[in-house]
Amino acid sequence: MKILQDQRFRQQREAFNLRFNCEHCALFDEQRETCAHGYPTTEHRQAHYDDPTALVVFCKHFELA
Ligand code: SF4
């Protein structure tokens, strides 16, 4: 599911230290920068959200590390 990222989301992401990116996922291989399940990571990486207009894409396989 892709949803619009608004100002409130950005504020709350910071305020609550929301973890939802590959970098915080137990399935992320930091050395190879890949997903252990082989899923594409581009839209789930932290860097994707440097763009304030980027759509929010939650990964349904996310496992908090
Ligand atoms: S399961 Fe999803 S959030 Fe976790 S590393 Fe793979 S693509 Fe990223």
Proportion of helical residues: 10-25%
Number of helical stretches of at least 4 residues: 1
**How much β-strand is present in the residues?**
5-15%
Largest sheet: 2 strands, antiparallel
Shape: globular
**Secondary-structure element order, as H and E?**
EHEEE
- Report the structural category: alpha+beta
Query: Could you tell me the number of beta strands?
Result: 4
Placed side by side, the strands forming the largest sheet appear as 1-4
Distance between the termini: 22 Å
Mean pLDDT: 95
Question: What Rg is obtained from the alpha carbons, in whole angstroms?
Answer: 12 Å
Q: Which ions and ligands are bound to the chains? A: iron/sulfur cluster
Low-confidence regions: none
Overall number of domains: 1
Protein described:
The protein has one helix at residues 7-15, and strands spanning 2-3, 28-29, 34-35, 56-57. The chain is an alpha+beta fold and 65 residues long. It has one domain (2-57). The protein has a two-stranded antiparallel sheet. The longest helix is centred in the N-terminal third of the chain and has 9 residues, at 7-15. The structure holds iron/sulfur cluster.
Q: How would you summarize what this structure contains?
A:
The protein has 65 residues and is of the alpha+beta class.
